[in-house]
């Protein structure tokens, strides 16, 4: 049983049927065709030689097929992670240098180790600290930065930078150097891909294809663009016109690579590797869960960490770059009918064949074509409706989202994500440090108690029912103390104060001390402190503390009981209550 | 009114009476006598020349008298802040060098600025993030480190370090160099002070003194030790025996000092200054609140920030060191009968006179005497019962406390406090990320619902009432989703799921998306999602979201209403319910 848990392949491989194999092989063929340009493009985006993208699409797929729990997730280089890799390596090594490539390998290995260890320690919940608004804002902003970073390839100029400001100024400086043939190739590809996205599918359906086939063919439009522009580049010798091509890349399978053991480099890259791991994990899990839900399957987040961890380790040791489960490729795999992770392993074989036999053709591929495919892909990452929805629902969440977006756009991806996480945690703590408190009255004739400011309720001047809508812990302990002291100073007739605790899920040691201090002050002022509706787990812990011993009042099971005992209205109640 | 708020002196100065003045003058005389050795000792502890301690006990007291809200707090150098200052400066400058002294001035100025700005922005609540267990553990551990750091003065050897490990090894290395006369002075003072603490008061009472006078005289025992050892040192020329003395210090009032404007130094000291500010503020406020409560006075934490901020600014600009409200000196001031902050201002005059006329005598004071007074003072900081109490009440809080203690002891004060704060926030988030959930049943014959695992209650197999005991936010959004999915997979007859929300104080944007996703999945499984007991503020926000539109079920005011509507037991209920 346990072995099956850690090796999910054992869950599906024994029952693997001929039918499954057929479905998986078809899906693999489609995914392979799509993966080739995507892998090359994301390597380019990460500032790496094109073949590194291919290497990262072979062994990682096999590793994920063995250790991953999603049946349809397709693992490989993805846009956001590639951008983060480039941003992490930029300050450490010159673009394209041996050290730069070694840095990418090291990030993959470190990220693989981190993910695997987190999986073994079951730390998948850590990813929850990336709130939805932060991750959505981060991905939208990254999409814009990525699109901007590709403009230089489209224009055929030199430019650099990993945020909109740097990219913008460096593009403006290079504006005079625009290469017209490059622009024609790039803009042409861009227009074709945009059209394919909206116009190709209806056209194919009109030509008599089934909806599903038309859909899949539409998604392979990038490979068509790649084929055509490669042919054009070769036929017209476009490199002599200043069009930059992918150029010669070593043919053959990747060889075993050892990561650098330079501890200084490890510590310099640690934060980046961690952020890449977490962002990659969150992206992958949300894609995996969305797809699994559609087929009523489940994925196990902790095992996913191991799946992605081993995928990254094998990417690193085979000279690749950091990988994760990508959205577009997984959707293609899913739509093409993949039944098991074996589809991924078959696609790995497809990519391996490409590195063996297709490299001479790939050499003629214009970089502008790849840039156009990236731009078209990442523009879909920008999710404006999510921005609006968050703004309407909660200004606090929107604040964290906006900080993430602005910092990602104008500073760096890392600053954006760190600020987002820090701000969402800080704002949550701030909210809980000033909890909503309500003075309650009784809904006439019932056992229910409601906020006196919102409902028409009975009150008793000698007894105040105060509901605190938050767990009591260090951040709000003093706030409660002050609220109660002010209340007591205001209500001169007060004899009994009942803290109504259905929303108190925890009383920590700091809050306990505050309650004890509060009890002292109340008894000095001649007011008895009571508690009502204390939850089981909270009560278990309070038993045996000095608070309960010293408290002048009682602990009531229900607020209504407290009302009956303290207001002395027992006989005035409706007969139904007896 | 507003002026009075920001200048608390206006609250008491107009009504200042002759009686107040008499009380304040008496208290000031006693505090002055006590402050002189304490100021010298804490300057020594911070690695600063002795006069710096005196300088920090003049103007800051005047500033606090004008801006502070506590009537009895006594401001000046205190043990923990002095240790933190030494730890902050150690890596930057050589002990006792001009740069080192300038660093202390800069920390005082930065801390003054930070506190004042925090006060103006009303950020006093930030101090709440230092939980009681963390601050108590930190102060206990600091007490031990401080005591250990003074052993070298007691033994007359050279040693260094700001944690137990470093101090221990460096003391072991120097063990052969022990200077016997120094040890005799130091150990003698230590024994005298320990005896004074327990034996002097009963003796004085037996000799016929009133209890109060005996108490105050006991607390001035350190000054007696100072007088005697100074006389001994002078009479026997102990400096020629290797006993280190305070030595010649410039006589006269401090002169105006400008802090360094070196931005690199500012940024190097920023974190230390912030930690010193926060720790000093927390210590001062807790002392101030304790004393204020005894006389039914109040202090205003935000104005306290301004009081301490201006005190530190004036300490910095007069060549002093960081200051805060100290426990022992404030208690002496309180016990001696101080009525208003004017007592502090009078004590400032006393210290000023000392810098003018007593410096020749102070030159003969042995450092071992000061070390002994420090050790006796800080040992009271170690609070073992608090450790035990926290261990019994909550292992989580104890974990944060222990981490603080261990890191403070073996690494550094800054690491200790940062780890403590980080860990308490992290553990709080972890707890809230896996909230307590309870399936509820109805207490027979009532409108109350309780956990089916803890109470004997009625249930209905087609309707599940799930109470989540936590606000729903990003950290637990996915956890809830998984809990519900598992529940639905287990309860095959389930038709209606009611989320009982009295403990849900907040639903953030991430949790809203999770609820929407959960609603989709439930409706796919043929289960309707309902909500009950949604709080007013939460409901206000949910209105207008897609969740309410798409939800198959209803929102019930009470769980009992949901029970009546969904279980169809209406007619089966007790007649009292009609």
From TrEMBL, chains A, B:
Pfam name, any one: STAS
Membrane spanning residue stretches: 25-45, 52-69, 75-93, 100-121, 178-196, 216-236, 265-288, 343-364, 370-388, 400-430
Primary subcellular site in the record, as a coarse category: membrane
BP-aspect Gene Ontology terms: transmembrane transport
CC per GO annotation: membrane
Membrane topology, as annotated: Multi-pass membrane protein
Top-level taxon of the source organism: Bacteria
Subcellular location: Membrane
Gene3D superfamilies referenced in this protein's UniProt entry, alphabetically: STAS domain
InterPro entries: SLC26A/SulP_dom, SLC26A/SulP_fam, STAS_dom, STAS_dom_sf
CDD domains assigned: STAS_SulP_like_sulfate_transporter
Keywords: Membrane, Transmembrane, Transmembrane helix
Domain STAS residue range list: 453-566
Keyword Transmembrane helix: yes
Protein's recorded name: Putative sulfate transporter
Organism: Marinobacter litoralis
Taxonomic lineage: Bacteria, Pseudomonadati, Pseudomonadota, Gammaproteobacteria, Pseudomonadales
